[in-house]
Amino acid sequence: MRFHTRKWVKPEDLNANKTLFGGRLLAWIDEEAALYSIIQLENKHVVTKYISEINFMASAREGDVVEIGMDVVKFGKSSLVLRCEVRNKMTHETIVTVDNITMVNLDENGRPKAHNKSQIEYVEDRLKRNKKI
């Protein structure tokens, strides 16, 4: 799993129990899934279709730093299925896991569009590919 984003838990991110509000964390996860998919699919028109069961295992408090990781589970014809783990960098605990986040690649009219991708690409891969052109 590659961890791409870190978030600092601030007072506005807390619930009544003074721990990280689950809704805020889910918004961060959804945003990270969208950014990851946009970069992988090279298309800014990507939307969330499905998020599976969310397993909250621990929490975070004000001042903690959380890290969001994404992995590709599979490439569909017009979709990308991701797995997510969020961990607390201060306590070293896993905060939440999500086994399936399905993102759909869209055309400019908002309809599913084939993305023709079958494997994860990193910046180095794209640089090499572009040099060959």
Instruction: Tell me the count of domains.
Output: 1
The ordered string of helix (H) and strand (E) elements is EHEEEEEH
SS summary, helix count: 2
Q: Give average pLDDT, whole number.
A: 94
Count of beta strands: 6
Spans of at least 5 consecutive residues whose pLDDT stays below 50 are none
Query: How much helicity do the residues have?
Result: 10-25%
Distance between the termini: 31 Å
Describe the overall structure.
Helices cover 23% and strands 37% of the residues. It has 133 residues and is of the alpha+beta class. The protein has one domain: Roll (Thiol Ester Dehydrase, Chain A), CATH 3.10.129. Strands 1, 2, 3, 4, 5 and 6 form a 6-stranded antiparallel β-sheet that branches. The mean pLDDT is 94.
What secondary-structure arrangement, pairings included, does this model have?
Blueprint: E1 2-8, H1 22-41, E2 46-51, E3 54-56, E4 65-75, E5 79-88, E6 94-105, H2 123-132
Antiparallel strand pairs: 1-4, 2-6, 3-6, 4-5, 5-6
